[in-house]
Amino acid sequence: MKKSLGPKTLAYPLPAYLIGTYDLNGRANIMTAAWAGIACSEPPCLAVGIRAGRLTHESIIKNQAFTVNFPNSSQAAIVDFAGLVSGRQRDKFAEAGLTAVDSALVKAPYVAECPVVAECRLYKSLELGSHTLFVGEILDIKADEGLESPNGGLDLAKVDPLVFNSGGQYHKVGSGVGQGFSIGKALIKK
Questions:
Q1: What percent of the chain is modeled with pLDDT above 70?
Q2: Separation CA 56–CA 33 (nearest Å)
Q3: Could you tell me the domains of the chain?
Q4: What does the pLDDT look like over 25-51, one tens digit per residue?
């Protein structure tokens, strides 16, 4: 028997991303985002929900671009900091000791210290209520050397991504449990 919890924003795990933009004065800014994920394969798209009134919301609309920076678990305090203060009053890059790198593909900065970065051009946006869902077409993924896996993706253990749960805790990703597109084959009826 299941207990009703009512309508809540529960999904596990949530990413802990840093969204990079240039503000209206051209200054590099980041914000923490957890309402995000892959939205499409063709074209490759990533979506992020951002509240209206946030500096990053304004910046994405103005520049039609953003970066999605994937921090590792050792960067939890930086991610939390970027969600606690506003880029309207603070230079988050400077205060967190981060390096803003100009993307060659979109009008947005990325965080040099994050192991993986997605450079996104605004593809579509959808007003949902408290948040706007910004869908960015991924123009490139940049990753630190040595993070690749043998199949051409990224080795999750080497990336060591930071994740968040809706209970307010940051987590590390644990060990694998099986190979995708394979372990379920035993359940396919012949």
A1: 100
A2: 10
A3: 14-187 (2.30.110.10)
A4: 999 999 999 999 999 999 999 999 999
